[in-house]
Amino acid sequence: MERTDPRRALGATGERLAAAHLEARGFSLLDRNYRTRYGELDLVVADRRYLVFCEVKARVARSASGPLDPLASVDWRKRRRLRWMAREWLAARADGGPHPPELRFDAIGITLDPTGMLLALEHVEEAF
């Protein structure tokens, strides 16, 4: 029997919810879990105006007070790595056709209860 890593499952759930949220707002999913030498881009989406690199952080509320803010872990080091990863993504698709005119980095924090029910979704546009 194959065992599932709970952190990977939580991340996949968060990314699925974030992608659905972005698609409901009119974005098209271009890439998910794009691997680079610096790490992994969670979501790359676009609409007519923006090409968005989106970092997704998911947490499970373990007590009445809840977890730390899921987005608290997107510090300056993570933001720097996300910029490097975006640069690699763009370079890999340099001849892949036109992109929307504006580039943006968003962050989405997902909070779930212990059963996996969505408690909160916070979408910060132009997070950095």
Descriptive key words:
128 residues; alpha+beta; Trna Endonuclease, Chain: A, domain 1; five-stranded mixed sheet
Structural description of this entry:
With 128 residues, this protein is of the alpha+beta class. It has one domain: Trna Endonuclease, Chain: A, domain 1, CATH 3.40.1350. The chain is built from 2 helices and 5 strands, in the order H-E-E-E-H-E-E. It has helices spanning 6-24, 76-92, and strands at residues 28-36, 39-46, 50-60, 102-112, 118-124. It has a 5-stranded mixed beta sheet with strand order 1-2-3-4-5, with helices on both faces. A hairpin with a 5-residue loop joins strand 4 and strand 5. It is globular. The relative contact order is 0.21.
How do you describe this structure in short?
By secondary structure, this protein is α+β, with helices and mostly antiparallel strands.
